[in-house]
Specification:
The complex is a heterotrimer of chains A (412), B (501) and C (144).
Chain A: E1 6-9, H1 13-24, E2 31-34, H2 47-52, H3 67-71, E3 73-76, E4 81-85, E5 90-93, E6 98-100, E7 103-106, E8 110-113, E9 126-127, H4 132-141, E10 147-151, H5 155-164, E11 170-175, H6 187-200, E12 202-206, E13 210-214, E14 217-220, E15 225-227, E16 230-233, E17 236-239, H7 242-247, E18 255-256, E19 268-270, E20 275-278, E21 285-286, H8 291-305, E22 318-323, E23 326-332, E24 337-342, E25 347-353, E26 356-363, H9 369-377, H10 387-392, H11 401-409
Parallel strand pairs in A: 1-2, 1-7, 2-3, 7-19, 9-16, 10-11, 10-16, 11-12, 18-20
Antiparallel strand pairs in A: 4-5, 5-6, 8-17, 13-14, 14-15, 20-21, 22-23, 23-26, 24-25, 25-26
Chain B: E1 10-14, H1 24-28, E2 34-37, E3 42-45, H2 55-59, E4 65-69, H3 82-94, E5 99-100, E6 115-117, E7 138-140, E8 163-165, E9 169-171, H4 181-194, E10 198-199, E11 216-220, H5 229-234, E12 237-241, E13 252-254, H6 261-267, E14 275-277, H7 287-300, E15 307-312, H8 317-325, E16 331-335, E17 344-345, H9 346-351, H10 356-369, E18 377-381, H11 387-396, E19 400-403, H12 405-411, H13 433-436, H14 441-466, E20 481-483, H15 488-494, E21 497-498
Chain C: E1 2-6, H1 16-26, H2 31-35, E2 45-49, E3 52-56, H3 65-69, E4 75-78, E5 81-84, H4 94-98, E6 105-106, E7 113-114, H5 128-132, E8 138-142
Antiparallel strand pairs in C: 1-8, 2-3, 4-5, 6-7
The chains are: A alpha/beta (412), B alpha/beta (501), C alpha+beta (144).
Chain lengths: 412, 501, 144
């Protein structure tokens, strides 16, 4: 039990995870969230569902209405944190106000990456698709006659495409990569999803970039032009590390943290999209900008901020995403030998080497996928399970009776 | 060889308005009666395989199933019944002895149902068992003929070994092999909890169950399967099986396919080989021979255990019992013709032996007349169905009863009488692991305990009504019984008066 | 806390638990009426592999990775029971991707997930899989 003052820069999964852990582990001091968005904590990945009409602003709150009261959190928003004064242990806010901390969490998330392109500054209706305000602005801008051009066929770009397709006249998606969802899918998998989206009416222009823009028109690297009314830039995201960098924290591509979520400075922790940490499936330190990791990192940070000795070593890349009812579940790294099942619609590819499952891609085949994920996360030796059976179907029957009894006999 | 198409005995009546095609019937039928047809999207059934065990009926979550007796008949004939015709067809086709299981199901008189029990009124007040103690405890074994005192006037205690039962019931002999491991475990645990006894049957005793030894009667039969010194001394009593009510005069036959490695080890017979118990004990051709075995077993068990001799109820049962009482045995067990079996030739089961009620009464009468009733206790078995059957048995002269079929019913048996097939859907009369696991002893033993406690409670109520507060005072008390609709001869054998007398 | 456990030794693979679970979710009075001609979506599922059978449902983990991973905040722990708010759930299936037991499944409409909530919201209020298991393979008890 302690009465330290906890400050979190951020109001999303990382900060929420930290606050919940601080209270769980007996931290009783003040908790302050600093956010530059004027909203109750909400789930960013849900903005596409908001445009789809599958959720509402109320329902897409990441925690219930009484969250801040229940946990005794003071939310300062909208206000920007402009600096961290490490020696004096305080955060300086826009306008000069200062927030002293005993323990600080930097959970500043990520920002859209906008590449330089000629003429982009002359396009009036250009949007990002990261925040609730982005979504609201986009919604206001579209009409049934809109032609939408999305630059980037990644997770954000395609979720944006899905959310707008029924509400606009047409959608073009341009990506420099030769396949869609290139960060999570291999070629064959990407083709299945691309075909599915194309069948619904999304037009793809792959392996080319928008080299320059005019008002209402993009010129592609191949020379083709695309007319549009609305432009969405969804090329990628980058960790929001400016504040951390300026304060002198060690920063690579993201803020460097250890398994306890400690940064290079004492009493300063970081969690979520702004960090880089070790991927358990490959051992490589990288950015894993995923909400589940953000929460679990935040939770680990919060536990340590409250005085526990917690560590989080099971971070892996994973994605669950669906388009028009076709679900794609992926995890880990795509290295090693592979097992493949594909019938053109359902697709399963497992990657393994050195007696371990490294990663997988599942399209339209979600049943019990977590059994695979746990093999990666737990680094389960494959000779301890019936891997042939597992390849065919994720199943606890593939585990030895005793291992299964341990799994099912008591809650973990 | 060509065979006439035997019409099914039963038909699966499925209410398709209620069937949700969950397929539990299909998954649970070891006879492969039910099958889901993808083609028509419905459950189908092959009636000819159905043995009417009711596993599917019991588990069907929507009560969509019933099994009905087929009303398909051969041309009506009071002599050549459908049953006779079918049996002939079967034997003409197979050339085999007809095999059956469990007890004689034929339409013989049930004397238990023709006797009523007395109750007190006015002059001999009844006793309220809820307010006054009722003693159901029984001791089995030879009792002294008279009280002897030493020089100091103290009672001399040279009582021979006794079995002490909290209530006058025991589970009768059912071998490991004929019934499953889980059935045995259920019986053993129930016997322990109830402070009574169960009986190994002639298949030896699995070492896992040695811990229940204080509540175990170990059996020695003509095949001597699984008999060794440790086995004998593991029990609380030893039973010599001379005969069995379901198949008097013949031995036993456990098919090799029921003898897996565990049973083979327990029986000390080769795995997969048929275990055949000879019809007679080849060392017993007289009462004197029997006496030798009785004393051999007493010797082997240090004279600490009572010896039970079990016989089937046959025509001259009273004379045989008299001989046994003189052989040194402590307890005589009589098995009536309704007694069960895991497999017996149908003709033997249905046509050999006599009803337990008559056998019991005549044995008790004979031993009393000869003045040797106290030398032995009498255990009656074979078709005892309720607490009143027990009360009537005791009034006819039994010290306690053996329960086999009723115990199996408590475990889930639905009396389909197909034990000989080894595919018991209730996990009782089978050794197939997938089927054995259907009987969870945690459930099984509790159901046995429930049944026995319920019966004990009923016995106390009935005793109270008769104004009797100790079960010992009921034994042989035939005045507590009256016959209804029995002729003079029957009344004479039973030693009871007719109702109204 | 009481949870649903399966004693594999006694599981017969009869799959009745699945039907009683699906029935409980309907809150109807008659199973035939509730499930006739319908595909069922049970929250407990039996795995069969030869002679091995066992039922799997949510373990209600004390440290539930599904709750931690839920991107919409639709999964939460209420008095020890992991509950799903189907209004908040948008059916991204992240929980399906993370549950090591395979105990979470898509809901019938595919736009949310469903999972065992120990029947806290059913009319009976107590797990029907355990209540109707014919062999006491599924039990509802406190193992800490």
């Amino acid at each position: 039990m302690n009465r330290l003052r906890y400050v979190c820069i951020g109001n999303s999964a990382g900060a929420v995870g930290a606050a919940e852990a601080i209270r769980k582990y007996g931290g009783q001091g003040e908790i302050v969230f600093i956010s530059d968005e004027p909203h109750h904590t909400y789930s960013r990945p849900l903005i596409s569902y908001l445009l789809l009409g599958r959720t509402t602003e109320e329902r897409m709150r990441y925690r219930g209405a009484s969250f801040y009261d229940d946990l005794g959190i003071e939310l300062k928003a909208p206000v920007k944190a402009v600096a961290i004064d490490l020696p004096k242990k305080r955060v300086i806010l826009e306008g000069g106000e200062e927030e002293p901390y005993d323990k600080l969490l930097v959970a500043t998330g990520s920002l859209p990456f906008i590449p330089a392109a000629e003429g982009l500054n002359r396009v009036k209706k250009v949007f990002s698709f990261m925040s609730l305000d982005d979504a609201k602005a986009l919604e206001k801008a579209i009409c049934p006659e809109s032609r939408v051009l999305i630059i980037g066929a990644g997770l954000i770009g395609l979720k944006c495409a899905e959310s707008l397709l029924e509400r606009v006249k047409g959608i073009d998606v341009v990506d420099l990569a030769p396949r869609i969802l290139s960060s999570i899918l291999d070629e064959e998998g990407a083709l299945i999803v691309q075909r599915h989206l194309a069948d619904k009416g999304v037009a793809f222009h792959l392996a080319q970039s928008a080299s320059s823009f005019e008002e209402g028109r993009a010129i592609l690297s191949g020379g083709r032009t695309l007319d549009f009314d609305i432009l969405v830039m969804a090329v990628g995201v980058k960790p929001n590390v400016d504040l951390a960098k300026a304060a002198g924290l060690e920063v690579g591509r993201g803020i460097i943290v250890n398994s306890r979520m400690e940064t290079s400075a004492p009493d300063v922790y970081a969690a979520g999209d702004c960090t880089q940490s070790v991927d358990a499936s490959s051992g490589v330190s990288k950015i894993m900008a995923l909400l589940p990791n953000a929460y679990m990192q935040g939770e680990c940070a919060g536990a340590n901020m409250a005085g526990e000795k917690a560590s989080f070593t099971k971070a892996i890349s994973m994605n669950a995403i669906g388009f028009f009812g076709l679900h794609i579940l992926t995890a880990g790294t795509y290295a090693g030998d592979s097992y493949l099942e594909s019938d053109g619609n359902r697709y399963k590819k497992l990657f393994y080497s050195g007696n371990r499952l490294n990663g997988f891609i599942l399209i339209g085949s979600e049943d019990r996928a977590g059994v695979y994920t746990s093999l990666i996360r737990d680094q389960t030796p494959l000779d301890e399970v019936d891997f042939d059976l597992l390849c065919r179907q994720p199943s606890l029957a593939a585990f030895a009776r005793q291992a299964r009894a341990a799994k099912l006999g008591g809650a973990q | 060889m060509g065979s006439f198409d035997l019409m099914p005995d039963y038909e699966v009546a499925r209410n398709y308005d209620r069937c949700i095609a969950c397929r539990v019937c299909e998954r649970q039928c070891s006879n492969l009666v039910h099958e889901y047809s993808e083609e028509i999207g419905r459950m189908t059934a092959d009636d000819s395989k159905c043995v009417n065990c009711h596993r599917c009926v019991s588990l069907c979550p929507t009560r969509a199933l019933k099994i009905v007796q087929s009303d398909n008949t051969y041309k009506l004939n009071c002599n050549w019944t459908s049953k006779s015709i079918k049996e002939i067809f079967t034997q003409a086709s197979t050339g085999s002895v007809l095999l059956s299981s469990m007890g004689n199901p034929e339409d013989y008189p049930v004397y238990f149902d023709k006797m009523t029990i007395n109750a007190s009124q006015v002059t001999n007040p009844s006793i309220d068992p809820l307010r006054e103690p009722m003693e159901t405890r029984v001791f089995l074994g030879a009792k002294p003929e008279k009280i002897e005192r030493d020089a100091n006037g103290k009672i001399k205690c040279n009582l021979s070994p006794q079995l002490k039962l909290a209530m006058p019931m025991m589970f009768s002999a059912m071998s490991y092999g004929s019934i499953s491991y889980n059935a045995h475990e259920s019986l053993a645990r129930a016997a322990e909890e109830l402070d009574i006894y169960y009986n190994t049957g002639e298949g030896g005793l699995n070492e896992d169950f040695y811990k229940f030894g204080n509540n175990t009667i170990v059996q020695v039969a003509s095949g001597r399967f699984g008999v060794h010194r440790k086995y004998l001394n593991q029990g609380a009593a030893v039973e010599i099986k001379m005969g069995q009510g379901a198949k008097p005069g013949i031995g036993g036959h456990l098919p090799g396919k029921k003898i897996d490695s565990d049973i083979s080890r327990t029986r000390m017979t080769p795995e997969g080989s048929d275990a055949i118990s000879p019809a007679p004990h080849h060392d017993i051709y007289s009462i004197e021979d029997l006496r030798q075995l009785v004393y051999s077993l007493k010797e082997a068990t240090d004279y600490k255990l009572p010896i039970i001799v079990k016989i089937a109820a046959v025509h001259n049962v009273a004379a045989i019992a008299s001989g046994i009482a003189r052989s040194g045995a402590d307890v005589i067990s009589i098995d009536g013709f309704r007694g069960g079996t895991g497999a017996a030739p149908t003709r033997i089961r249905d046509c050999v032996g006599i009803p337990i009620e008559l056998a019991l009464a005549s044995v008790d009468t004979r031993l009393r007349k000869e003045g040797i009733r106290d030398r032995v206790s009498i255990v009656a078995g074979g078709g005892i169905r309720s607490s009143t059957d027990i009360v009537k048995s005791i009034a006819l002269g039994a010290d306690c009863v053996y329960l086999g079929t009723s115990a199996l019913l408590a475990l889930g048996c639905h009396l389909c009488r197909s034990c000989q097939a080894g595919k018991c859907n209730w996990g009782i009369a089978t050794q197939e692991p997938e089927l054995v696991r259907r009987l969870n002893p945690d459930i099984g033993y509790k159901r046995l305990v429930n049944l026995m406690r319920a019966w004990q409670h009923e016995i106390e109520e009935i005793m109270g009504g008769m104004g009797i507060n100790s079960i010992e005072a009921l034994r042989g008390n035939r005045l507590m019984l009256r016959g209804v609709g029995l002729n003079e001869k029957e009344l004479g054998i039973l030693g009871i008066l007719h109702a109204g007398e | 806390m009481k949870r649903v456990y399966v004693n594999e030794k006694w599981c017969l693979g009869c799959h009745l638990c699945e039907y009683y679970c699906a029935f409980a979710q309907t809150n109807k009075k008659d199973m035939a009426w509730a499930l006739k001609d319908k595909k069922i979506f049970p929250n407990i599922r039996v795995e069969d592999d030869g002679a091995i059978h066992f039922a799997v449902s949510c373990r209600h983990c004390a440290e539930p990775i599904c709750v931690k991973s839920c991107i919409s905040g639709a999964l939460s722990i209420v008095d020890g029971v992991i509950e799903i708010d189907k209004d908040k759930c948008i059916g991204c299936f992240t929980c399906i991707l993370t549950c090591p037991y395979g105990a979470i499944t898509p809901a019938e409409n595919g736009q949310a997930i469903q999972k065992c909530e120990l029947c806290v919201r059913t009319a009976e209020g107590t797990p029907q899989c355990a209540a109707h298991c014919p062999n006491a393979a599924i039990v509802y008890e406190d193992r800490g």
